[in-house]
């Protein structure tokens, strides 16, 4: 799929009630939100089929339901900010249960993918050590490029086209010197690594 979609948790009060569900969904599926939430965890389709297929006019909903349309639960704010930092944006769609926003991003535009690069594992050593060749120490996501997919977050030392990992991190990934890895700097680390180099996006232009 070219597009990635994420559904974010909508507003729910301390008692587990959803203003959006109480104002809309409960009229078509007469159970409280906690029960509907449990039932929908495995399959939302059967409840969605009970919802009206004609347009629903927002002004006809209770004020409490209107107020939470497209809003996220306070505990979901960090996830929303993380997704937005990766390039996701509001899709103008909401969850039919709690009114939470659905965000989307083209797969090729996701920051972690855009800034990822194919690297050769040149060695396993202390990534904090001084490198005579000018390698930069960066917090990164590192994934296997071939075979079974594995991915970890770790400290790396990188030069253009190559990477050094700590020995225990290489063991966790089950990789050896000479293997190809996909490496993407964690947010805030990219600027340091790409200083003086063209990013993968710039290289493709």
Brief overview:
This protein is α+β, with helices and mostly antiparallel strands and 205 residues long. It has nine helices and eight strands.
Mean pLDDT, all residues: 84
Strand-residue fraction?
25-35%
- Give the overall shape: elongated
Query: What topology, given as strand order, has the largest sheet?
Result: 4-7-6-5-8
Question: Would you report the number of β strands?
Answer: 8
Rg (C-alpha, Å): 23 Å
Give the total of domains: 2
* N-to-C CA distance: 23 Å
The helix-and-strand class reads alpha+beta
Characterize the biggest β-sheet.
Answer: 5 strands, mixed, barrel
The run of helices and strands is EHHHHHEEHEEEEHEHH
What share of the residues lie within helices? 25-40%
- Contiguous low-pLDDT stretches (5 residues minimum) are 190-205
What is the helix tally?
9
Specify the oligomeric state. Answer: single chain
């Amino acid at each position: 799929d070219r597009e990635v979609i994420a559904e974010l948790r909508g507003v729910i009060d301390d008692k587990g009630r959803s203003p959006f569900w109480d104002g809309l969904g409960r009229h078509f599926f007469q159970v409280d939100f906690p029960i509907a939430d449990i039932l929908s965890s495995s399959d939302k389709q059967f409840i969605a089929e009970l919802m009206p297929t004609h347009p629903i006019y927002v002004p006809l909903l209770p004020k409490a339901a209107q107020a939470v349309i497209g809003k996220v639960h306070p505990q979901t704010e960090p996830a929303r900010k993380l997704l937005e930092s990766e390039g996701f944006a509001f899709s103008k769609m909401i969850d039919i249960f709690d009114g939470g926003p659905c965000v989307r991003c083209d797969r090729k535009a996701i920051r972690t993918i855009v800034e990822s690069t194919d690297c050769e594992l040149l060695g396993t050593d202390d990534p904090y050590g001084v490198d005579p060749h000018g390698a930069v120490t960066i917090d990164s996501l590192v994934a296997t490029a071939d075979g079974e997919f594995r991915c970890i977050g770790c400290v790396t030392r990188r030069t253009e086209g190559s990477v050094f990992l700590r020995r225990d991190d290489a063991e966790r990934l089950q990789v050896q010197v000479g293997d190809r890895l996909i490496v993407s700097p964690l947010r805030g680390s990219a600027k340091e690594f790409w200083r003086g180099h063209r990013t993968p996006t710039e290289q493709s232009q």
